[in-house]
Design brief:
The chain has nine helices and 15 strands. The chain is of the alpha+beta class. The mean pLDDT is 88.
């Protein structure tokens, strides 16, 4: 295990010197540890060059596994140092439908394995819900944050993809530019208005305003996805939701040189001082699974 933790710290900081300082080791000792790990595995994990270092493909896979290990070790030490009892009781969270299946449920499963005394209370809603008024501990939310007394931790961000079923695309004229999007019927997701914004992949800071007529409107992301899959129209949907459907051939990307806006993803909590250890762990797990589905 120590070899893996040393490797994870080097990969995380992208520096032998910084990793050595953080671990209280010499740079040569860190280098020797990594060499031993590579010899044990029989594979190269790092590529060293004049500009620094980079992970090999094997190294990237190992690092993704080591991140959870490092988090668990850090939390174990934190618990021992503070002499805290294992958390138990109701852990109430609210989250949007989009991250329920592939992000939050796997994170909650792992959290309950590590802290079996935790009883999750999950409220799934695409609406903003006040934490104190609804006796919630944590809210997961996409988009710009509202001013509040709560604390927010960044998780990541996701883009949006113009998409439709292949059958729907065949029934319409080819979409070759932004203006051609107006020839399609659009399924409006809960957070969208008639006016949307597109961005060129090559120039993501340049905002292009587009007006799209809705052929259907829904208050749930899952319904929007199902409508698109059933050839009812095109949609602009989160990339981590539709990318697997595009990869499997169930959907096709429209106008791939453009995308929708980037949506920041946050965990908002109500704790003004130190967070309970299970809340910190939940944040780490959500971030891990979100990165996994969004890469």
């Amino acid at each position: 295990m120590p070899l893996l933790l040393v490797f994870a710290q080097v990969a995380r900081l992208e520096s032998f010197t910084a990793a050595a300082d953080s671990l209280g080791m010499s740079k040569s000792a860190v280098s020797q540890q990594l060499k031993r790990l590579e010899e044990q595995l029989g594979q190269q994990l790092l590529i060293r060059n004049t500009r620094g270092m980079a992970l090999t493909s094997v190294g990237e896979k190992l690092f993704s596994r080591c991140e959870l290990l490092q988090d668990q070790v850090d939390l174990a030490l934190q618990e021992l140092e503070s002499n805290k009892a294992s958390p138990s009781g109701v852990f109430s969270i609210t989250l949007p439908h989009s991250c329920e299946r592939d992000v939050v449920i796997p994170a909650l499963r792992q959290l309950c394995i590590e802290y079996p005394g935790i009883e999750p209370n999950v409220v799934v809603s695409d609406q903003v819900i006040d934490l104190v008024q609804n006796k919630l501990d944590v809210a997961l939310t996409f988009g710009d944050l509202q001013d509040s007394q709560y604390r927010a931790l960044p998780i990541g961000a996701t883009g949006e993809i113009f998409c439709a079923s292949a059958a729907y695309v065949i029934q319409h004229n080819p979409v070759e530019c932004i203006d051609d999007l107006q020839t399609l019927g659009w399924i409006r997701a809960p957070w969208q208005q008639q006016k949307l914004f597109a961005y060129e992949n090559a120039a993501p800071v340049t905002k292009i305003e587009i007006m799209l007529s809705a052929c259907a409107t829904t208050n749930a992301l899952s319904s929007a996805v199902e409508m698109v899959l059933n050839h009812m129209g095109a949609a602009l949907l989160p990339s981590f939701i539709v990318a697997p459907l595009i990869a499997s051939g169930q959907l096709v990307q429209i106008l791939p040189a453009h995308q929708g806006r980037q949506w920041p993803f946050y965990m908002v909590h109500r704790f003004q001082t130190e967070k309970p250890v299970h809340v910190t762990r939940f944040y780490q797990l959500v971030k891990h699974y979100f990165i996994k589905v969004n890469c």
